[in-house]
Amino acid sequence: MTACRSCNARKGNHLPEEVGMHPIRAPGEPHLVHLAWAVRRLTPIQARYIRLFYGREVLEELRAL
């Protein structure tokens, strides 16, 4: 689950429930298009996590877009 910068800072190193925060909508897996849009701004660490969770093939497919 992701949050905007200010909410993420407010949450700190706690679970959302621990600090009385609740998501506006239920979390879900991102669509390939969203990942493709985001990949243009990937840091090496983010690319590593996409490769870890979605596989090398998905990362390479996103980079080819």
Description:
- With 65 residues, this protein is mainly alpha-helical.
- 54% of the residues lie in helices and 0% in strands.
- The chain contains 4 helices and no strands.
- The radius of gyration is 14 Å and the shape is elongated.
SSE diagram, text form:
Blueprint lengths: L4 H7 L20 H8 L4 H11 L1 H9 L1
Helix pairs in contact: 3-4
Question: What would a concise description of this structure say?
Answer:
With 65 residues, this protein is mostly helical. The protein contains 4 helices and no strands. The two termini are 25 Å apart.
Distance between the first and last residues' Cα: 25 Å
Q: How do the SSEs run, as a string of H and E?
A: HHHH
Question: How much β-strand is present in the residues?
Answer: under 5%
Query: Average pLDDT, to the nearest integer?
Result: 80
Shape: elongated
What is the overall number of helices?
Answer: 4
Which structural class should the secondary elements be placed in? Answer: mainly alpha
Radius of gyration: 14 Å
Helix content: 40-55%
Biggest sheet details: none
Stretches with pLDDT under 50, minimum 5 residues: none
Number of DSSP-assigned strands: 0
Question: Features of this protein?
Answer:
65 residues; mainly alpha; 4 helices
